[in-house]
Amino acid sequence: MIAMTWQKGAMRTLIPALALLACAQASAQVPQAPNPPTQVPTQVVERASFQVRVIEASKGAPQVDPKLGDLERELRSLHRDYAHFTLIKTETQNLTTGTRGTLRLPNGELVIQFLGLSPDKVQRVRHRVEMPGMNATVRAIAPGGRTLDVLQVGDKLVIVATTVGR
Fold this sequence. Notes:
Elements: H1 2-29, E1 47-58, E2 63-64, H2 72-78, E3 84-96, E4 100-105, E5 108-117, E6 125-130, E7 137-141, E8 146-153, E9 156-165
Parallel strand pairs: 2-3
Antiparallel strand pairs: 1-3, 1-9, 4-5, 5-6, 6-7, 8-9
């Protein structure tokens, strides 16, 4: 009777141990997928374009340069004493994140630095603008949007129209 009890106790221990061994052997036979190679995260290079038009405004007979037709309404509303608008130059700066573009103005230099795209639902182009006579400013403009900055230079105005693109 004592021997029988020992066998039942041994069987109780032996059966789960055998089942565990069978599972381990079965999983060893299943082919394992190789570990995928570790990928180094790549930095996305963001790009933006800035079309800059430098415009001179003077007093005199009302006239808008035909090349400024898309700006006429905005220009006429800027300052009632200045009604004659002439396009001095147009330049496009194509920039990547962190890069700077410069443009010569009649009274110094315009500097635009592309800071990147905003992560917002409505994507905006973040950039920093520096101009003579103005504090540096950071702007976030939707692609296709435009800003107008006005600088007094002698008896004329210099208007910097910047259109942001992608």
